[in-house]
């Protein structure tokens, strides 16, 4: 969106409080300002990029959803179960341990076997839970990582798009 200083609160408010950091219920006063959205388009891909990636041996598609959804065993949200053809599954929750981010070394081991020179497109159901995988990949040294923000919900909204239901 254009913010230059963005952080992840590892462990959430519970970890913040346990660490003894200050909390307050006082609502701060801020002067209104106009925020100018400056999307970093270099981090995003669209449906046409994903279609091209399916047959591109230099691009890896990562589905971040639960394995049951990836395999097409269940689909609680979208009209059709399964995954985008050629995608591999790295469930986003695997990046956490006891509610905290796994170490950089453990993140790297999650993505063992992926080539850091390959392009990587990450998606989930609607673009939200793919984000932890994007961050973990970037932290692990991958540089060509992009988010398909429309994700699986966008993909299956086009009846002509193919879907796979078995593991690759």
From TrEMBL:
Domain (Rhodanese): residue spans on this chain: 1-25, 55-164
Pfam assignment, any one: Rhodanese
Entry's EC annotation: 2.8.1.1
PROSITE patterns named among the record's database cross-references: RHODANESE_3 (PS50206)
Sorted UniProt keywords: Repeat
Record field: catalytic activity: thiosulfate + hydrogen cyanide = thiocyanate + sulfite + 2 H(+)
SUPFAM superfamilies documented for this protein: Rhodanese/Cell cycle control phosphatase
InterPro entries with a match to the protein in the record: Rhodanese-like_dom, Rhodanese-like_dom_sf, Thiosulfate_sulfurtransferase
Protein name: thiosulfate sulfurtransferase
Organism: Siminovitchia terrae
Lineage: Bacteria, Bacillati, Bacillota, Bacilli, Bacillales
